[in-house]
Amino acid sequence: MRVREATVERTQSAIPALVCLAAWAVPGLGHLWFGRRFKGLVFLVALPLMFCTGLWLEGQLFPFEPSQPLVALAALADVGIGGTYLAAKALGYGGGNVVAVTYEYGNAFLIVAGLLNLLVVIDAWDIALGRK
Amino acid sequence: MSSHFLLLLLFALFVSTVFAVLLRDDARSQLRFGGMLFGSFVLSAIVLGWLMYPFPL
């Protein structure tokens, strides 16, 4: 009986985790999942657009460098945008141009887009748990 | 585009849009909150810019 309860509990907790994974991979997908179409569509458009603006401004997708904690934190923030980050990396974008006048602006756009998507994922998690 | 002010406006627009949609549920309060956030971003940047004006780079 206890095993059965534990299985049911695991299954129920797997759904919010799946929603979070989807919301991380595609910004707004978590909200679209629960029928919050307007919010989902705004996130789906605004966040990748902000990230792409960062790339266009010649910002850098930072590498995971454990010896440089601030660079590693910036890399973690970049990854927050999910699939868009992976696509940009796969296509060879995000090399950054340190001498470009917009380099720091690009970094700010890239990092903040990733961090905002993490907030969106947390919001999707709250919806999945029935808190919102 | 290398205008600092236009990039500031673009950044403020993105961040205030996402925050307004994330933190408010009905359209009217989203618009009000987003507008207030956008205005605060721009105003505080201008005020901080002027406050930093006397300091050399």
List keywords for this structure.
heterodimer; A: 132 residues; mainly alpha; B: 57 residues; 2 helices; elongated
Description:
The complex is a heterodimer of chains A (132) and B (57). With 132 residues, chain A is an all-alpha fold. Chain A has one domain (2-128). Chain A contains six helices and no strands. In chain A, helix 1 (2-25) packs antiparallel against helix 6 (103-128). The two termini of chain A are 31 Å apart. The model of chain A has no long low-confidence stretch (mean pLDDT 91). The longest helix of chain B is centred in the C-terminal third of the chain and has 26 residues, at 27-52. Chain B has a domain at 15-52. Chain B has 57 residues and is an all-alpha fold. In chain B, helix 1 runs antiparallel to helix 2 (27-52). Chain B has two helices and no strands. Chain A binds chain B through residues 38-39, 42-43, 46-47, 49-50, 53, 57, 101-102, 105, 108-109, 112-113, 116, 119-120, 123, and chain B through 1-2, 4, 7, 10-11, 14-15, 17-19, 21-22.
